[in-house]
Design brief:
- It is a single chain.
- The protein contains 13 helices and seven strands.
- Strands 1-4-5-6-7-2-3 form a seven-stranded mixed beta sheet, with helices on one face.
- Helix 8 packs antiparallel against helix 9.
- It is elongated and about 70 Å long.
Length: 317
């Protein structure tokens, strides 16, 4: 069967899909918004005449710029939605299987598997991006992560190149000031998390304190639809009391059913929702947890309990 021009265009666009998803996810913090932005980018490319497409010198750069403009609009509209959000907000996680494709990828690989290999999408870094203004986020991400010139970023933002450069500089400074922990090897993550989980399950508060940094924090996201902390909780002692209270509140052994997954490329655990069978015990909401590690300590725990953001957790099989 003859390959049409549209088929060839679609195949070429597919080769850029993982890149565009990475751009859009880092700009929006939402898998759904990122996928919508990529789809809209495709529609804009497909709507061009052959002559207009032939005039594009660097198609990847053109697609990146278009995706950036679409994401800027989404970021600006998201500001109002965030004001109505109940409690803290965490980026929508990208959840993949621990035994996923090898690091080199391959034919048929889910584009999201490629996205999470980027150190810049780890949860700690994404949270820092969320503190930036839409203009700062677009300028910083597009320039520092994807090498888009400030002249082109200025066109996206509708400002002068010098102003775009200033937005990028402020975003860069915010990331440096926050200093989110770098990604550590999975083997180190596994060893520390196993110690932490074993200590929690045994109720050994002393053992928990040996892996939890004294100034550790826990951030919960539920939008009022599940049980988790609604405010950022800081301090190992507070977190240990919080965890001890959860263990007492739920069925014995329920936390042992959590299974390992990768959350934005880092090791985490997914606990499925379950009903309590013992009087006085609470039902369990679904939870997805991952941590940030620095110098052998757990310095942050991210507890995603908003069911709207847990629809893409892979099946246990």
């Amino acid at each position: 069967m003859a390959v049409t021009e549209q088929d060839a265009l679609a195949r070429d666009f597919s080769s850029h899909r993982a890149h565009l998803l990475s751009v859009a996810y880092r700009l929006t913090g939402s898998v759904a918004d990122a996928e919508d932005a990529v789809q809209e980018t495709w529609m804009r490319l497909a709507a061009l005449s052959p002559e207009q497409r032939a005039g594009i010198r660097d198609r990847r750069a053109w697609l990146t710029t278009v995706a950036g403009r679409i994401c800027l609009d989404r970021l600006r509209s998201a500001t109002a939605r965030r004001e109505r959000y109940v409690g803290e907000w965490l980026p929508e996680p990208i959840v993949t299987s621990v035994g996923g494709p090898p690091a080199g990828g391959g034919i048929g690989e889910d584009p999201l598997e490629a996205v999470v290999r980027d150190d810049g999408v780890r949860m700690a870094a994404m949270l820092v991006l969320d503190r930036l203004t839409p203009e700062q986020r677009v300028a910083f991400v597009l320039h520092d992560a994807f090498s888009v010139p400030f002249d082109e970023i200025a066109e996206i933002l509708g400002c002068a190149p010098a102003t775009a450069r200033q937005h990028g500089s402020r975003g860069r400074r915010a990331l440096a000031d926050a200093e989110p922990p770098a990604r550590v090897p999975l083997s180190e993550q596994r060893e520390l998390l196993e110690r932490f989980v074993a200590a929690v399950l045994s109720g050994d508060i002393k053992a928990v304190a040996e892996v939890l940094h004294p100034d550790a924090m826990i951030v919960g996201d539920s939008n009022g639809k599940a049980r988790t902390t609604r405010r950022v909780m800081v301090g190992a002692e507070k977190i240990m009391r919080f965890i001890a209270g959860l263990v007492e509140r739920y069925e014995p052994g329920v936390f042992a059913t959590a299974r390992p997954v990768l959350v934005n490329g880092d090791l985490g655990f997914f606990l499925e929702a379950s009903r309590a069978s013992t009087p006085g015990r609470h039902d369990v909401d679904a939870h997805l947890q991952t941590v940030a590690i620095r110098d052998g300590w757990i310095v942050a725990i991210y507890d995603q309990a908003n069911p709207d953001k847990l629809g893409r957790v892979p099946d246990a099989g």
